Each structure stands twice: as structure tokens, then as C-alpha cells.
Amino acid sequence: MKKSIGSNTFAYPTPAWIIGSYDQNGKANGMTAAWAGVCCSDPPAVTVSLRKSRHSYQSILEREAFTVSIPSASYLEAVDFFGIASGKEVDKFEAAGLTPVRSELVDAPYVGEFPLILECKLLQTVELGQHIQFIGRVVDVKAEEDVLGENGKPEMRKISPLLYSPGESTYYGVGEILGKAYTSGLKFKK
Amino acid sequence: MKKSIGSNTFAYPTPAWIIGSYDQNGKANGMTAAWAGVCCSDPPAVTVSLRKSRHSYQSILEREAFTVSIPSASYLEAVDFFGIASGKEVDKFEAAGLTPVRSELVDAPYVGEFPLILECKLLQTVELGQHIQFIGRVVDVKAEEDVLGENGKPEMRKISPLLYSPGESTYYGVGEILGKAYTSGLKFKK
């Protein structure tokens, strides 16, 4: 028997990514985002939602670019800090001991220490209410070699990204491999 | 040293949700979606991207409604099947032995066996290319009591949802709790 728990954003899992941008002074900044995901295969595109009050909001609009830096779980404290502090008041990269690396493809910095980076050009914005959705075309993905599998593509267990749990404000790690897609479900096919 | 691996949708984690809708004949249908996530806190809203060729595409447009059914990992085979088969040819619920339950709030069915359901009204669509993004306002969330914590909110470890890994087409489970948000990062605050 299901129970109604109201209109809310209880959806699982959500990611914990750092969205990188340069502000009006050219300072590298980043913010943690969980309201984010993939939204299109061709062109490859991702979406991230921000409140207008965020320092990153104006930065992304002005440079029409952002990066997605996907952390390994060992960077949990820094990821959390990037969601607590404001780039208006502090240099978050410096405070957390992380390295802002200038993308050569888009006008935004990424986190040098993180294993997987998506460099994005702003395609469009969608006004939703408290959040504005930024849709970015993925111009390139950059990966540390040690997170790539034999086929040259990233493997999630090697990245070991963080998951964010809305409602309990908690970070989780990735668990076991449970099955292959387009294979496991064939048993129901007649 | 990072390596360029091209323009792609390598982002981690992505979810594995079943999106429920009624087709033109009133038949309950569902499709598996990984290009999906939360996009706004107020109004609470989620996004899911579909190709126009999907049977669900026209269904959601016509009824202006969909549900998000979040599975427990034990339903992996059914989740995968809902991503392989087409509702044009088969009754997926019947084939996989799942129960379509009519939402009382929106004109769409959800998966009765899954622990967490988001009932959504279509707010808008965004044309992106191969995929069209559907944005839905979350009218209500329904949960099995056993996935709720003491505060009445869902706990991710109790839901035990699936994660999807793009590039390796593999499902993972949720791992350990690693830390609390808005707490772990305070050590970098001066």
C-alpha cells in the first residue's frame, strides 16, 4: 500500500557534479549540482538547473559555456564545499585545494583533479520557476586513462562518482554491477 | 593527463526509471529512461527525454501526463525489458508480470510493484535534436512505507534504485552512504 508524501523532488539517484564557469572578473568558480542529467544523444547534451541567485548563473549566461566535472567519491568534502560556499565571497578552488584548468574548447574551467570532464557550450535556457535549466551541448569529454575500459569508454566503477539522495541530503557511492542492458530483459521477449 | 574521448553523453550516474503513459487505445505502457532527472525545486519538476519514434511520445503529448516509477534493483530484468520492447507491439506490463495502476491525479499509469512513484503533469516540451525533453510538474509522490525514514522521507538505500552507466550499457546498484551534505564540506570554510 503506497502512501502519498506530497509534491516534491524525491527522485533517485541524482548526480553530484561540479559545474565550472568564469565569473565577470575572470575568476574560476564552480558549484555543486544535483538537478542535472543527460538530455539528448545527438547532439550530445546535458542539462543543469540553477537558481538565479547563484554566482554561476550570470557567469554561464555571459560566457555561454560551462563544464561538468564528475568527481571520484574521494573528493566528497570538496564537492560538498562547492555546494555550501558562494563564489561571490570566496575562491572555492583555492579553499578546497583543487586546480582550475582552462578548457581549450569552451570559455570555462574544470576541476583538474576529477577523472571525467564534459566541456559544454550553452544551447538554451528554460525558465522553470525557482530554477532555470541550462542546456549545454557536449563539445568534448576528457577522461583520465585509468577510468577507461578496454573499449576506450568510461566505466562507472572506475570513476566511482557520488550519488546524491534528495530528502535525506546524503551522498552515496556506486555499488556493484548488476547486469547488462539490452540483455537482461530478453527473457520476457516472446 | 586527460585524454579526449570525443563529444558524447558519458555522464555518471544516470537513473533507470520507467515512464508510464496511456496510449491512444487506453493501453498502459511504460518505457525505460536514463536521460532524465530533477530540474526544479519549486514547482517540483522532473525532466525526461524521448525520441519521437517512441510509442510513449505521442501518448504523453496527448494526455499531458506521465509517471516516473523508480524500481528497486530486484526488478532489473523488467526495467531492461521496458527499454527493449515497444508498446506498439506488446503489452509490456503483461509480458513482464507487472501491474499498471491508474493514477488518481494524472492521466497515466504507474508500476504498482515499484517502491516510489512520481505523478507528473506535462509542463512543456523542449526540442533538442534526436531527443525531445518533456518537463513534468510533480503533482504527488507515492511511496511504500518501508522505503521511508524516520522523518517520513525516502531513503535511497531502502529504495535501492538502479543506476545506468552510459558507454558500457550496464546497470549498477547503489553503494554505501559516504557523508552528509552541507556538513562534510564545512572543513574548508574559514
TrEMBL record, chains A, B:
Limits of the Flavin reductase like domain: 10-153
Keywords: Flavoprotein
Listed GO MF terms: FMN binding; oxidoreductase activity, acting on the CH-NH group of donors, NAD or NADP as acceptor
Lineage: superkingdom: Bacteria
Cofactor(s), names only, from the UniProt record: FMN
KW Flavoprotein (keyword) present: yes
Family membership: Belongs to the flavoredoxin family.
PANTHER family, per database record: FLAVOREDOXIN, FLAVOREDOXIN-RELATED-RELATED
Protein name: Flavin reductase domain protein FMN-binding protein
Protein species of origin: Syntrophobotulus glycolicus (strain DSM 8271 / FlGlyR)
